[in-house]
Each structure stands twice: as structure tokens, then as C-alpha cells.
Amino acid sequence: MYPDDAKKTFVLKGMGASPGIVMGKAYLFDRLDSLISFYTLNDTALVEAEIVRFRDAVAKSEKELLEVKNKLSSIGGIEPSYIIDVHIMILNDGAFMNNTMQCIRDMFVNAEWAIRMTVDKYREIFDKVEDDYLRKRFNDIQYVAQMILRNLAGKKLETVEDIGEGVIIIAQDLSPADTAQMKFDQVLGFATDVGGKTSHTAIVARSIEIPAVIGLKTLTKVVRTNDDVIVDGTSGVVIVNPDPEILHRYEEKKKLEREGKKEYLKHAQLPAVTLDQYRVEIGGNIEFSEEIPSAIANGAEGIGLYRTEYIYINREQLPTEEDHFASYRRVVGVEGLAWSTIRTFDLGGDKFFSDPKLAKEMNPQMGLRAIRFCLKEVDLFKVQLRAILRSAAYGKTKILFPMISGIEEIREAKSILHDVKRELTAADIPIGEDIEIGIMIEVPSAVVIADELAKEVDFFSIGTNDLIQYALAIDRINDRVSYLYEPLHPAVLRLVKRVVDVGHAAGIRVAMCGEMAGDPVCTMILLGLELDELSMHPLAIPKVKKIIRGATVKESKELLEKVMSFQSSVEIRDYVEDFMQKRFPSEFPEIDQG
Predict the structure, then answer these.
(1) Exposed site from 188, 398, 454, 575, fewest CB < 10 Å?
(2) In whole angstroms, how large is the CA radius of gyration of the chain?
(3) What does residue 281 show for φ and ψ, rounded to 5 degrees?
């Protein structure tokens, strides 16, 4: 695909997983994932010896993980250590162990091949999981299997601790344990062929603020160790062997971003108030309670979206009410946060529950998921609602129901919530008072009947990720059509405007919690739409706040009026980017990559 000359300059475009720019030498990280051999065992004694060999490798793998966890704790890296716990749980999982040993006994095969068969069984299960975020948790099982295989082969576990100083890690993929160790000073950043914004690697990279780009597809095929590399985690670009001119431009850009970050952080703890005194509340989107310190440090006033799906991941048994309660207590009532918005779980179909009557859905994004699943599995729904109500006794809490498409769904969800309230009150269990109830506006039908839905709730929260997907008929994880995914499409702007107008006419607040909320290019458009709250990834907050504090609603409305007259998303995108670059030149520096 590329010439053999490793010194040729080329650019790969991926997805920015963690913002920032780093320049340094590449280090091609070998995951040692081809360690599977096959041979048969010809008597019972060999079978039992093979099982002992397997158990010893598992024990050694657990010891290695505990050493990594202790090291993280000793250097103050506790935030990502829960990911190590997930891998230890898999190692101790009875089903994983028993399936592997049963394969050895029943089929008289070696441990390596038995592990392969066990992993394949798990792959079949996870292939039925329709949610992209949850499906990628299969990577954890693969990583644990690789650790055991390494120890069966007697190979040393390669970690980023073993590499030279000041390098950029290049890999096909990086496990959570790999990225967790990037606390070490010698790692500047990383870039991978695969991954998504919701993968463990991306989440951990953001939490420890190491620049990263993922989804580069062919990077490991064309990069060699010691190549000069630029990783631009802000724009999702990796430049290999940059020529002097590109290198100079990026040195300037890095300097601007470094100076800009200091400037942004000056605004982080200030209120998001425009020059003409329009106040916007700023929330942080989180998946894990460990992200809260970063959210507060970057200026989140509250948690605008707590995604609760992770509670269900990597469990042999369903989470109990106490499991839910413990998770929510780490989010509700935290000092420095004015409120916490907890979204009920967005699971679907056969994601965690075996049901022979449920076939793999042809179109899972429009299938049995989110509130539809909750209303079908009422007992599971009640367990979560009980825990949310109990945790609400400790701080300001809002409940957010996802994927509401009709009036019947919100009324039924509220009815179940009221039943749970009565049960808790009757049992004299403390619950929160004045809990606000909201719905995600992410289905076009909800926009059409927003006036009726507004009578049922206290607030709207616009989930632009799904709303854009459904409105424009785009599978946003499909590379072939992802170029059509455009927040500034005129249809999307009209949908958002209707929701805000209808919500305000009904006297309720309107928030936005999709990725559009954290895109600084869109900030003045959202000001012109007069959204009450913007919730985003914490690292996006300081820059968005600075733009809000330097703008006016008056000029934002004028900008909105102008772009609403355009017919195409290309016209709107070009105009808005040009406007924002001229209006805030220091926030949008131009760099031509040649």
C-alpha cells in the first residue's frame, strides 16, 4: 500500500481518542497473539498434567496482574486499576476455567487449544451483542487468554515499562492493562489500528490525558520502530516521518495548544456566561465514577449524563440492587457537583440474557433496546430504579429515560417509577425528594410529538449521536457511510430547534448530551438555539466555556439565522468553520498538512 521507503512522509486519518499533540519515536508494540499450538494427549495422566499446567499458567497470570495493580496504586494511578480487577475476575471466573478444563478432558487436547475453543465460545456470545460498546468488552477476554498463553509458552509479559524512554506506542490494539501502565513518564502517546471512542483504551487514555489516535486500520503495517511520528489526538491524525516543514508547523501548533490549555483552564471553574449574560449550565458525560475528578477539574458543574450500562459488564450474575446503589453513591452527592443525571440502562435484546426465542436482530439499533427493553424486563428495571431513588437521598439527582419514541413509553416508565417510590416509602427506606424526570430526545418521532412529551417530564436531553443517526439514516459505525454523519446538517439543526422551542414554550429546560455539545465549532450555533445545558466529555469543557464566555447570544442568533438559510450541510459546515476561525482565531488555528 505504501512504498518500502520508511522515511517517506505519509498521513493516516483515524479517530482522536484523547486530545493533544505529541512528537517522538515510534515503538511497535508486539501483543504476542500467535501463541496457539495443537496436539493431542494419548492418556489420562497426560490430561491431568495438562490441567495442572493450565492452572499454573492462570495463577502466574493473576500474580502478574496483581503486581501491575500494586504498582499503579503505589504511583497514584488508582483510577484505571479497576480495569485490572476486571481481568482478575475473568481469570477467576468459574465458567472460563471449567470450560477450558472440560475441553482438555473431553477432547484430549493441549491447554493452548482448549483456551482457543473457550475463547471461540465467548466470541459467539459476544457476537450476538448488538451494542458496539458492549461487544468490544470481548477484548478483555482475549487479553486474559493471551496472558495465559504467554505463560504457557514461558514468555515474558511485555509491558510499556520495558520500552525505551520518550516513545509513542504503535499497536494493532492496546488492552486496558497496557494503557493503564501509560502512567509511566516514558510514554508520550499511542496510536492503534482498531478501537472506538467507547473502548477501554480510549476511556483510560482520556482519564490520564495522554494523546491518542485510534481506528487507523493500517498503521502497524507501515510504521517501524524508531520512525519519527506525530500523533495529533485532537484532530485524529498520525503523521509518519514528517518533513521539516510539517514538523515546524506542528511544533507551533503544539505550542499554541499548550498555551491555550493553560488559558482554557483559567476559564474551567468560571460559569459559562456569555458577554450579554446568558447562562449555560455545563455537565460532564461519564461512564465510570473514576472520571469524576477529571470532570470537576475541567469545570463540570454537574454530571449531565451517567451511562449505567457498564454495571452489567463482565458479570456472571446480574448486578444486585446493592451493586447499583454502590455505583450511584459514588456519583451522587460528590463535593463539587451540583447535580447528577443518571440514565437508565441502554441495553437491548440478547445482550446479557439467554433466551432461545430471541434471534439475532437484523437491525439492532431499531430493535429491543433501551426503554423498550426496560419495559419488557420490569423486574430488572425496578432493581435499578430502587437504587437510583435510594442514592438520590444523598444529593441532587435527575433520572433520564433513553430512546423514548412515544407517549405510552414515558407514561409506563413513570408509572413503574411511582410504584417503586411507594414500595420504598412503605418500607421506610429514605429516597430523594424533588427528583427531576427527563427523557432523551434521540428518535425523530419524539421530536414530532415533543409538545405532548413536554407535558410528562421536567426536562429534555437531546442525544445527538442517535438523533443524527436515525434522522439521516446513517449507521455511524459503518465506515462506508460515516462521512454522511453531520451534526450541522440543516435537518438536524431544525430538529434541535424544534425541541428547544417546544421545551421552552412548555416551561421545561432543554439539555444536549451528545458529542455535538462538546464540539467547539458548534458552540455558537448551540448558543443561538438557546440550549439551557450542554453536557460533554470533561476534556472538552474548558475550551467550550472559553468560547461561550467570549461570545454573545445576539451574534450567535445572527449566525444561526444565516446558516438556517443554507440548503446543504457542506455550505453550513464551511460557513460555520470559517466564521468560528475568524471570530476565535486562537481557538481554531489553521494548519495546512500539505
Answers:
(1) 575
(2) 25
(3) -80, 140
- The CA distance from 219 to 170, in Å, is 8
**Residue 165 gets which letter from DSSP?**
S
Task: Indicate the residue type of 580.
Answer: M
C-alpha cell at 570: 457542506
Query: Residue 294 corresponds to which cell in the numbers above?
Result: 477529571
Is the Cβ–Cβ distance between 69 and 85 less than 8 Å? yes
Contact call for residues 80 and 176 (beta carbons, < 8 A): yes
Q: Checking DSSP bridges between strand 228-232 and strand 21-28, what pairing results, if any?
A: antiparallel
So where are the chain's domains? 10-30+159-245, 44-153, 260-353+365-583
Q: Which CATH number fits domain 44-153: 1.10.274.10, 2.60.120.280, 1.50.10.10, 3.40.1440.60?
A: 1.10.274.10
CATH assignment of 10-30+159-245? 3.50.30.10
Q: Report the relative pairing of strands 279-286 and 272-273 from DSSP bridges.
A: antiparallel
Question: Highest mean pLDDT: which of 8-12, 54-58, 107-111?
Answer: 54-58
In the block, residue with C-alpha cell 515510534:
26
DSSP per-residue letters across 404-458: --SHHHHHHHHHHHHHHHHHHHHTT----SS-EEEEEE-SHHHHHTHHHHTTT-S
**Cβ atoms 204, 83 nearer than 8 A:** yes
Distances (CA, A) of 62 to 303, 520, 590: 35, 44, 49
Residues 475 and 477: their CA atoms lie apart, in Å, by 6
pLDDT score, position 511: 98
| Phi/psi at 45 (5° precision) | -60, -40
For the segment 44-72, the average pLDDT, to the nearest whole number, is 89
| Residue 451, φ and ψ in degrees, nearest 5 | -65, -35
Question: DSSP H helical segments within 194-243, as ranges?
Answer: 200-208, 219-222
| 112: three-class secondary structure by DSSP | helix
Contact 190, 169 (CB under 8 A): yes
- Exactly one of 87, 200, 324, 489 is catalytic; which is it? 200
Phi, psi of 192 (to 5 degrees): -130, 155
Q: Is 591 helix (H, G, I), strand (E, B) or coil?
A: coil
Catalytic site residue 200? yes
- What pLDDT is stored for residue 202 in this prediction? 67
Number of other residues whose CB lies within 10 A of the CB of residue 44: 10
Rounded to two decimals, what is the model's pTM? Answer: 0.63
Q: What is the residue whose three cell numbers read 495522554?
A: 210
**Dihedral over Cα of 22, 23, 25, 29: its sign:** positive
Cell 454502590, located at residue: 326
Report which DSSP code applies to 161.
G
Chain-centroid distance, C-alpha 72: 22
Q: What is the SS3 assignment for 356?
A: coil
Residue listed under C-alpha cell 462521512? 483
Confidence of residue 503 (pLDDT cuts 50, 70, 90): very high
Rounded to the nearest angstrom, the gap between the alpha carbon of residue 486 and the centroid of all alpha carbons in its chain is: 19
Q: Would the pLDDT of 32 be above 60? A: no
| Catalytic residue (one of 103, 267, 489, 513) | 513
Residue 307: all three cell numbers together: 451511562
User: CATH class for domain 260-353+365-583?
Assistant: alpha beta
pLDDT above 90: residue 284: yes
